[in-house]
From TrEMBL:
ATP binds at K616. Monomer. It holds the Pfam family Anticodon_1. Residues 31-651 form the Aminoacyl-tRNA synthetase class Ia domain. IleRS has two distinct active sites: one for aminoacylation and one for editing. The misactivated valine is translocated from the active site to the editing site, which sterically excludes the correctly activated isoleucine. The single editing site contains two valyl binding pockets, one specific for each substrate (Val-AMP or Val-tRNA(Ile)). The keyword Cytoplasm applies. It comes from Roseospirillum parvum. InterPro entries: aa-tRNA-synth_I_CS, aa-tRNA-synth_Ia, Anticodon_Ile_BEm, Ile-tRNA-ligase, Ile-tRNA-ligase_type1, Ile-tRNA_ligase, M/V/L/I-tRNA-synth_anticd-bd, Rossmann-like_a/b/a_fold. A motif ('HIGH' region) lies at residues 61-71. This is Isoleucine--tRNA ligase. NCBIfam families: ileS. Its cofactor is Zn(2+).
Length: 943
C-alpha cells in the first residue's frame, strides 16, 4: 500500500511576523522615536482641524523629583481619555504643564546653601530665585522624558509652566481683578502656620497624622456672675493645646447645654482638687471630670441652663502676673459635650472659631507667637520659649497659680505640614485674603458646583461642603520663591492701591523680565507719575502657589488658540477637592463668574497589594520606572484602565503578573488575527452583508456591536475598568474558547474560496480593525505595532478613528439564542474533558457524542452543526429526557451527553474521523479536504 502524502503545504496555517513575545521594554522606545519622527502630535492636530474640541486641562505636577506611581496613574489616565476622545472623532489637544513655585523647591536650594555653610538670607534674592528657577527647569526636563516614556502624547515642545513670564504676568492680572473689586484685603487672623517652614499653609498643604498632646483642665476664677452658686467658684476648661493659654481672652459655653456647680467634699491622695472648692462643668461631662480630677466625693450645688451663664466674667489663671484682664463667658455654637468640660477656652489668635467668636464681641486677637514658633518678647512669663516645648512650663505655672485641676496625654489626629511632616499651629498674623462674601464669591462657587458634572458623583457633595464652610482665602506667603504679591500699600492708611494701570505695568514687566523685576526695579517704574513712591510701600510677600495653579485656566486655556475655555475636563486625585479643583473654582468664579471646567473626574490613591500606603520603610514602593524597565509601559497602562480608579488602587508584584498575563492573552489574540488574515484581500474575498454569513459569524458581529456600545459609554463616562473586564471576557471566552477554536478547522482546511472560510476571514478582518483601534488609547504601543504589522505604509493607528459599526450587526435575538447554544456547548466540552482525562479519547475529534436536549434547546440549535461547534467529528442530537449516567452540568438543566467514539478513519489533512476518508482520489483525506487540495488559491501568499 502506498504511503499517504504530506498535505501540510495545502493547509492554510497562520503566517505573521508579529512576535508572540512582546519585548516591550526594548520595543517601546523605538515606537516613541517613530512618533517623534513623524511628529505624531502635530499630525493629530492637523487631522483634528474643524472637529469638535475636547480639552482635558492638565493639573500641573510639581517639578521637584522623579515621577512616582501616583504620577503614572494620573498621566496615563489623562492620556487614555485624551486619546479615546481623539478616536471618537474630536480634536483632543493635551497640553502638559508644571507647577514651579513654592516651598519644596525653595527648601531644596536652602539645603544646598546650608550644606556649604551659607545663609539664604545673605544671598541676593534674585540670585536665590534664579537657582530655584534652574532647579525647576531641570526637573521639568526629567519628568517630561519620564511621562513620554509612559506613552503620554501632548504638546511637549510647548508645555505650560507657572513660572513662565506670560504666566506670571497673567497671575498679576488675575490678582488685580480681586484687588480692584475690593475682594482682596489685608487682615490679621489665625491661619494654619508651619513654624518649621515659617509660612502660612493652604488647606491642601495640610495632612493629618497622630500626635500626642498634653491635656490640661484649668480653673478660671469667677469674679462676676448673676448666679449665686457660681460666686467664689471657678469655670473649668479643658484644652489639648496648653501653649495657647497665653493667648486666652474668653471662655465659650453652649447656650442650650445643662451645667452643674459642685462642691468638692473628698479627693484622692494625689488629686489637685481642693476640699470645699466649687467649680462648674457641663452636666454630661461631670462624672468624667470628677474621675480625671481625683474627686472622690462631691455635693451638687446647682444646675444651670447655659443661657444663665451670660454675663459671667472670670479672671485669667495668671491674673496679677501680666494677664490682668477680664475673661468673659460667651455663647459659642462650636462648643460640644463630646469631650472635656463643656467649656472651651478662647484664644482669638490661635483658632478659626475662636477668632470669629472674639471678633463678634469686638476682641482684637493678641500677637503672642512669632513665625518661628517662639513667644514674642512682650508675652509675660514665656517670652522666647517655643510653643512645642513649653507644655511643662505651662503646667508648672498653672500649678503655682493654683489653677491646674488635672492634666494628661492624648494621642489624636493633628494637622501636619505635608512637606516637613512637622505639626502646625493656628497663628494670628497679618495676611492677604480674598473674601468669600465680596461679590458673592461663595454663592457663585456653589452655583458653579451644581452646574458641573462630577465623576464619581459623590465629588459634588464633598467640594460643596468645603465651599460652604471655608473661610476667606489666604493668598499670601512669607517666602522668596514665587510670584510676588504685586501690591502697593499706603504707608499712612494701609489702603491698597487699586490703579489698573499700575497692575498692567507690573504685568508687562513680568512678561518681559519674569517676576524677578519686582525685586530688581525701582517702585517708580510701576507707580508711574501719578503716585508718590514715598506714600506707597510695595509688599514683600509672595502669592500662594494654589493661586498660581488656580489661575492656569487663564494663562493656558484662554491664551492658546488651539485650546478652549472652559475645559471639558479637569482630572486629578481626590485630594484636589480641597486643592486644584477648589482654588481653580474660586479663582474663576471670582473673575469670570463660573467654573473653568465642565466636568471633574477624581481618582483614588495607589496602595500596595495589602492596601497599605507605600513607604520606603515598608519596602513596598513601586516605581513606575522599574515597572517600565521590567514589563513595559503598556503593562502599566493596562493596570490603570483595568483598575477601578474611582477608589484607591492597589499594585505590586502579583498584580503586575496578572496584568502581564492579561496582556499576553490580548497580544496572542492579535497575533492569531494577523496570522489568519495573511493574504486577505477585502476587495475580492470579503462577504459584505451579515445576512450572507453563517450564524457563528453573525454572532461575533453582534458581540462587536455590543462592545462598541460599551466602549463609547465607557469613553463618555471616563470609566474603563468595566469595559476591560468585558473585553477580557470577550477575548478569552467568546473568541479564544469559542469562535476561534471552532473556526480553526475552516480557516486551515476549507477551500480557499469556500463561503464559510471567506465569511470567517471577513469577520476576522472586522475583529482586527475593531480590536486594534479600540486598544489604541489604552495599549498605545502594542496597538501601533499590530497596526503597522499589517499596514507598514501607514503613519500611525493614532491617526485613525474608532470604527463605525453598522446597525445591522446588532441582533439581540441572536445574542440571546447563542447564550443557550454556548450553554449546550459547555456541557458537551465538559463531557469531552472527562473522556480525555480518563484517556478514552486523545483529541475531541475522536468523539461523536450523543447529546440529549429539550425542545427549547433543539430550537436554539436549528441551522447549526453542533459537531462543528463542539469540535467533534460527529454529534447526534436527541430531543428527550437525559438518560441515567449521562454527563450534565447543574447550571444547564435538560442537557446531557453520552460519550461515543467517531466512526471512520482519521483524515490526514483535517484530522477529523470520518467514514468517507480514503474514498477520494487524494489518498487518506475526506471529501472536503480533497476538494480544497484541488482548488488552491490563485496566490499561495497566505499558505
Amino acid at each position: 500500500m502506498s504511503e499517504t502524502p504530506d498535505y501540510k503545504s495545502t493547509v492554510f496555517l497562520p503566517r505573521t511576523d508579529f512576535p508572540m513575545r512582546a519585548g516591550l521594554p526594548k520595543k517601546e522606545p523605538g515606537i516613541l522615536e517613530r512618533w517623534a519622527g513623524i511628529d505624531l502630535y502635530r499630525r493629530q492636530r492637523e487631522a483634528g482641524q474643524g472637529r469638535e474640541k475636547f480639552i482635558l486641562h492638565d493639573g500641573p505636577p510639581y517639578a521637584n523629583g522623579h515621577l512616582h506611581i501616583g504620577h503614572a496613574l494620573n498621566k496615563i489616565l489623562k492620556d487614555v481619555i485624551s486619546r479615546s476622545q481623539q478616536m471618537l472623532g474630536k480634536d483632543s489637544n493635551y497640553v502638559p504643564g508644571w507647577d514651579c513655585h513654592g516651598l519644596p523647591i525653595e527648601w531644596k536650594i536652602e539645603e544646598q546653601y546650608r550644606a556649604k555653610g551659607h545663609n539664604k538670607d545673605d544671598i541676593p534674592i534674585n540670585d536665590f530665585r534664579r537657582e530655584c528657577r534652574d532647579f525647576a527647569e531641570h526637573w521639568i526636563g526629567v519628568q517630561a522624558e519620564e511621562f513620554q516614556r509612559l506613552g503620554v502624547i501632548g504638546d511637549w515642545r510647548q508645555p505650560y509652566t507657572t513660572m513662565a513670564p506670560k504666566a506670571e504676568a497673567q497671575i498679576v492680572r488675575e490678582l488685580a481683578h480681586f484687588a480692584t473689586s475690593g475682594a482682596l484685603y489685608r487682615g490679621a487672623k489665625p491661619v494654619m502656620w508651619s513654624v518649621v517652614e515659617k509660612t502660612a499653609l493652604a488647606d491642601a498643604e495640610v495632612e493629618y497624622a497622630d500626635h500626642t498632646s498634653t491635656t490640661i483642665w484649668v480653673r478660671f476664677p469667677v469674679v462676676h456672675t448673676r448666679e449665686a452658686a457660681l460666686e467664689g467658684g471657678s469655670i473649668v476648661i479643658w484644652t489639648t493645646t496648653p501653649w495657647t493659654m497665653p493667648g486666652n481672652r474668653a471662655i465659650a459655653y453652649g447656650q442650650d447645654f445643662e451645667y452643674v456647680v459642685v462642691r468638692v467634699t473628698a479627693t484622692a491622695e494625689d488629686s489637685l482638687a481642693r476640699k470645699g472648692e466649687r467649680f462648674c462643668v457641663a452636666a454630661e461631662l461631670l462624672d468624667e471630670t470628677l474621675k480625671t480630677a481625683g474627686v472622690t466625693a462631691h455635693e451638687e450645688c446647682a444646675r444651670l441652663p447655659g443661657s444663665a451663664l451670660a454675663g459671667t466674667v472670670c479672671h485669667h489663671p495668671w491674673h496679677g502676673k501680666g494677664y490682668d484682664f477680664e475673661v468673659p463667658l460667651l455663647a459659642g455654637e462650636h462648643v460640644t459635650t463630646e469631650a472635656g468640660t463643656g467649656f472651651v477656652h478662647i484664644a482669638p489668635g490661635h483658632g478659626e472659631e475662636d477668632y470669629w467668636l472674639g471678633r463678634a464681641h469686638g476682641m482684637v486677637p493678641p500677637d503672642t507667637v512669632a513665625g518661628d514658633g517662639l513667644y514674642f518678647d512682650h508675652v509675660p512669663m514665656f517670652a522666647g520659649q517655643h510653643v512645642f516645648k513649653v507644655a511643662p512650663k505651662i503646667l508648672e505655672a498653672m500649678t503655682e497659680a493654683g489653677a491646674l485641676l488635672a492634666h494628661g496625654k492624648l494621642t489624636h489626629s493633628y494637622p501636619h505640614s505635608w512637606r516637613s511632616k512637622a505639626p502646625l499651629i493656628f497663628r494670628n498674623t497679618p495676611q492677604w485674603f480674598i473674601s468669600m462674601e465680596t461679590d458673592d464669591l461663595r454663592d457663585k462657587a456653589l452655583a458653579a458646583i451644581d452646574e458641573t458634572r462630577w465623576v464619581p458623583a459623590r465629588g459634588r457633595n464633598r467640594i460643596r461642603a468645603m465651599i460652604e464652610q471655608r473661610p476667606d482665602w489666604c493668598v499670601s506667603r512669607q517666602r522668596a520663591w514665587g510670584v510676588p504679591l504685586p501690591l502697593f500699600v499706603n504707608r499712612q492708611t494701609g489702603e491698597v492701591l487699586k490703579d489698573p494701570e499700575v497692575f498692567e505695568r507690573i504685568a508687562q514687566a513680568f512678561e518681559q523680565e519674569t517676576s524677578d523685576a519686582w525685586f530688581a526695579a525701582d517702585p517708580c517704574r510701576f507707580l508711574g507719575n501719578d503716585h508718590d513712591p514715598d506714600q506707597w510701600e510695595p509688599t514683600r510677600d509672595i502669592v500662594e502657589v494654589w493661586f498660581d495653579s488656580g489661575s492656569t485656566h487663564a494663562f493656558v486655556l484662554e491664551a492658546r488658540d488651539d485650546l478652549a475655555w472652559p475645559a471639558d475636563l479637569y482630572l486629578e486625585g481626590s485630594d484636589q477637592h480641597r486643592g486644584w479643583f477648589h482654588t481653580s473654582l474660586l479663582e474663576s468664579c471670582g473673575t469670570r463668574g463660573r467654573a473653568p471646567y465642565k466636568a471633574v473626574l477624581t481618582h483614588g490613591f495607589v496602595l500596595d497589594e495589602q492596601g497599605r500606603k507605600m513607604s520606603k520603610s515598608l519596602g513596598n514602593v513601586v516605581s513606575p520606572q522599574e515597572v517600565v524597565d521590567q514589563y513595559g509601559a503598556d503593562i502599566l497602562r493596562l493596570w490603570v484602565v483595568a483598575s477601578d480608579y474611582a477608589g484607591d488602587l492597589r499594585i505590586g508584584p502579583e498584580i503586575l503578573k496578572q496584568m502581564a498575563e492579561m496582556y499576553r492573552r490580548m497580544r496572542n489574540t492579535l497575533r492569531f488575527l494577523l496570522g489568519a488574515l495573511a493574504g486577505f484581500d477585502a476587495a475580492t474575498e470579503a462577504v459584505a452583508e451579515p445576512a450572507d454569513m453563517p450564524e457563528p459569524e453573525r454572532w461575533v458581529l453582534h458581540r462587536l456591536a455590543e462592545l462598541d456600545a460599551h466602549l463609547r459609554t465607557a469613553c463618555n463616562d471616563f470609566a474603563f475598568h468595566g469595559l476591560f473586564f468585558e473585553l477580557n471576557q470577550f477575548l478569552t471566552v467568546d473568541l479564544s474558547a469559542v469562535y476561534l477554536d471552532l473556526r480553526k478547522d475552516a480557516l486551515y482546511c476549507d477551500a480557499a474560496d469556500s463561503p464559510r472560510r471567506r465569511a470567517c476571514r471577513t469577520v476576522l478582518d472586522h475583529l482586527y480593525q475593531c480590536l486594534t483601534r479600540w486598544l489604541a488609547p489604552f495599549l498605545c504601543f502594542t496597538a501601533e505595532e499590530a497596526w503597522l504589522a499589517r499596514h507598514p505604509e501607514a503613519e500611525s493607528i493614532h491617526l485613525e478613528l474608532f470604527p463605525d459599526i453598522p446597525a445591522t450587526w446588532r441582533d439581540d435575538r441572536l445574542g440571546a439564542k447563542w447564550r443557550t447554544v454556548r450553554d449546550i456547548r459547555r456541557v458537551v466540552t465538559g463531557a469531552l474533558e472527562v473522556e480525555r482525562a480518563e484517556k478514552r479519547i486523545g483529541a475531541s475529534l475522536q468523539a461523536a457524542p450523543l447529546v440529549y436536549v429539550t425542545g427549547a434547546h433543539m430550537e436554539a440549535l436549528e441551522g447549526l452543526d453542533l459537531a462543528e461547534l463542539a469540535i467533534t467529528s460527529a454529534v447526534t442530537v436527541i430531543e428527550g429526557a437525559v438518560p441515567e449516567g449521562a454527563f450534565t452540568l447543574d447550571d444547564v438543566p435538560g442537557v446531557g451527553v453520552v460519550p461515543a467514539l467517531a466512526e471512520g478513519t482519521k483524515c490526514a489533512r483535517c484530522w477529523k474521523v470520518l467514514p468517507d476518508v480514503g474514498s477520494h482520489h487524494h489518498p487518506g483525506v475526506c471529501g472536503r479536504c480533497a476538494e480544497a487540495i484541488d482548488n488552491p488559491p490563485v496566490s499561495r501568499a497566505e499558505a
